Task: inverse folding
C-alpha cells in the first residue's frame, strides 16, 4: 500500500463502549454511518483505550504513549509538557493543515505546562445548530469541519479531529425507553437503569448522524477517496464499572478505519491500542514517526486483517475526579491478552470510586461514578451484590477470562494462580521497560494540581478539595468543554 499525502479525519466519540454500534450486532442502537465506514474499510473488534478517563486517553491518542509517559497529560484536569511530541505537530511539519471541532484534548489547561500552540491545531467551534435535541452539544461539527476545509489551500493535505461530546452525560430525561436492553450483570436491572441506557443509545445515534454529515461533506468536495477516516471513542460508557475502570466496558472501544486503496469489508480481531493511532496516521501520511512513542502502525492489519501487531495491550489509570482526600487517585494498570484481562491495583485500601464518606468535587459521594439515575439506583442500598462489584474495594490483583466472562465479574486471580503469576511478570516487565514510576513505588501524580480552563483561557489550579467550584459541577466536565 503506497504511503501518499492523504487527508485524515479522526473522529472521537466521548464515552462510547464496544459493542454499541449496529455493525457489532447491538440490537438497541442504529449507527448506519459508522457501519458504512466499517463496511468500506476495516472493523476492529479488539481495540482498547489507553485509559478509561478522557484527558489521559486523548493524550495517548495524540502522542502514541502510555499515560504514565505523558506526565500531567495522564490525569483529568491536567496539562501538557512542550517536551512531548504530538502527532498533529508532526503533520504540520510535513505541511499539513491541522484543525479540530468539538472536544479536542481535555478537560484541562494545555497552556499551563508551557505548550505554546494547541496540541491538535486551529479550533473551529463557532458554528452552532439552530436547534438540537435536549442535552446534546449545540456545536455543529460538520459545519465547523466545512469552515476548516474551505480555509485549506487547494492541494494542501489536512488533518482534522472531530471530537463529539456525545454520548457523554448529561442525557435527555425524556428519551424513549427501548426494548430488549440487556443490562450488564454488574448493574441493577430496573426501569430506571433501562431508561438511562436508552438515553445513552439516543446520544450515540445523534452523534452518528453528525458523522454522516461530515462524510457527506467529504463526498460533496470530492475528498472522500483521498481521506483516511478513523472512527473511535476515548473511553467507555458513563456507567458504574465501565468508565474510569480497567474492565472491558471501560477500555474496549469501537473502531473502524476506512483507508483509500485498502481492503473493504474486512474484520480484524487482533489486539490494538489507542497508542497505535498516531503511528497509523503518520505512516499513512508518509510523515516521520514520533520519538519515544510505543504505538505501532495498523496499516499492515488493513492489508491483512489476520495479521497481528501486539500479543497484549496495556492500559492504566491514575486520577479522575477529586473524590479522595488530598486529591489522591486510584492507581492501577492492566494487561489484556486475547484470553485474559489482568489488573494490578496499587492501592487496594482505597475506594475505587472515591467511597461513601468523602464529598467529591462534583458534590457527590462515590465521585468517580458519573451522576445518573443508574448511580442513584446503585447507591439505594437495594442491590448489595452490584454495589460491591461497582463501588466496593478491590484486591491487589484481578484476573478475568474474558471469553467466558466478557463483563469481567468473576475474579480468577487466586484460582488460576499460574496465569496470574505469568501475567504479573509480563506487566511488571513492561512497566519497567516503559519507565512507569508507579512500578517502583513513586507517585508524581498525587502532586499534580487540578487545572481547569474557564471561559476564554482563564484558569485556576488547586490541590485542595473544591466541592463548591462551579467549574467542577457534575456534567460540566465536557458539555461544553
Result:
Amino acid at each position: 500500500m503506497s504511503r501518499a499525502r492523504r487527508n485524515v479525519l479522526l473522529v472521537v466519540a466521548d464515552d462510547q463502549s464496544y459493542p454499541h454500534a449496529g455493525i457489532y450486532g447491538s440490537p438497541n442502537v442504529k449507527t448506519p454511518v459508522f457501519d458504512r465506514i466499517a463496511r468500506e474499510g476495516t472493523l476492529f473488534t479488539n481495540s482498547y483505550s489507553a485509559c478509561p478517563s478522557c484527558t489521559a486517553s486523548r493524550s495517548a491518542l495524540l502522542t502514541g504513549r502510555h499515560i504514565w509517559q505523558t506526565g500531567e497529560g495522564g490525569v483529568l484536569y491536567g496539562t501538557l509538557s512542550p517536551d512531548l511530541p504530538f502527532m498533529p505537530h508532526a503533520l504540520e511539519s510535513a505541511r499539513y493543515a491541522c484543525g479540530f471541532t468539538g472536544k479536542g484534548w481535555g478537560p484541562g489547561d494545555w497552556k499551563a505546562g508551557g505548550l505554546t500552540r494547541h496540541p491538535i491545531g486551529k479550533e473551529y467551534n463557532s458554528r452552532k445548530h439552530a436547534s438540537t435535541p435536549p442535552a446534546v452539544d449545540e456545536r455543529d461539527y460538520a459545519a465547523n469541519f466545512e469552515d476548516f476545509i474551505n480555509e485549506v489551500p487547494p492541494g494542501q493535505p489536512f488533518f482534522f479531529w472531530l471530537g463529539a461530546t456525545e454520548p457523554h452525560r448529561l442525557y435527555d430525561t425524556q428519551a424513549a425507553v427501548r426494548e430488549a436492553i440487556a443490562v450488564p450483570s454488574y448493574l441493577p436491572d430496573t426501569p430506571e437503569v433501562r431508561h438511562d441506557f436508552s438515553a445513552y443509545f439516543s446520544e450515540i445515534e445523534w452523534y452518528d448522524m453528525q458523522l454522516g454529515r461530515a462524510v457527506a461533506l467529504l463526498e460533496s468536495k470530492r475528498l472522500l477517496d483521498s481521506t483516511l477516516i478513523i472512527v473511535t471513542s476515548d473511553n467507555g460508557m458513563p456507567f458504574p464499572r465501565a468508565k474510569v475502570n480497567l474492565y472491558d466496558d471501560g477500555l474496549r472501544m469501537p473502531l473502524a478505519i476506512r483507508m483509500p486503496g485498502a481492503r473493504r469489508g474486512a474484520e480484524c480481531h487482533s489486539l490494538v491500542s489507542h497508542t497505535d493511532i498516531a503511528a497509523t496516521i503518520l505512516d499513512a501520511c508518509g510523515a516521520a514517526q514520533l520519538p519515544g512513542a510505543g504505538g505501532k502502525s495498523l496499516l499492515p492489519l488493513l492489508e491483512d486483517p489476520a495479521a497481528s501487531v501486539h500479543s497484549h495491550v496495556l492500559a492504566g489509570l491514575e486520577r479522575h475526579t477529586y473524590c479522595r482526600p488530598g486529591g489522591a487517585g486510584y492507581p492501577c494498570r492492566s494487561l489484556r491478552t486475547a484470553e485474559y484481562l489482568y489488573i494490578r491495583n496499587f492501592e487496594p485500601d482505597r475506594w475505587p470510586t472515591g467511597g461513601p464518606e468523602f464529598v467529591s468535587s462534583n458534590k457527590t459521594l462515590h465521585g468517580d461514578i458519573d451522576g445518573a439515575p443508574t448511580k442513584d439506583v446503585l447507591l439505594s442500598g437495594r442491590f448489595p451484590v452490584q454495589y460491591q462489584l461497582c463501588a466496593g474495594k478491590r484486591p491487589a490483583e484481578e484476573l478475568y477470562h474474558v471469553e467466558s466472562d466478557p463483563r469481567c465479574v468473576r475474579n480468577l486471580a487466586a484460582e488460576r494462580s499460574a496465569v496470574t503469576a505469568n501475567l504479573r511478570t509480563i506487566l511488571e516487565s513492561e512497566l519497567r521497560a516503559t519507565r512507569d514510576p508507579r512500578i517502583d513505588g513513586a507517585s508524581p501524580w498525587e502532586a499534580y494540581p487540578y487545572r481547569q480552563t474557564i471561559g476564554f483561557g482563564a484558569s485556576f489550579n488547586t490541590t485542595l478539595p473544591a466541592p463548591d467550584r462551579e467549574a467542577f459541577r457534575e456534567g460540566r466536565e465536557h458539555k461544553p468543554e
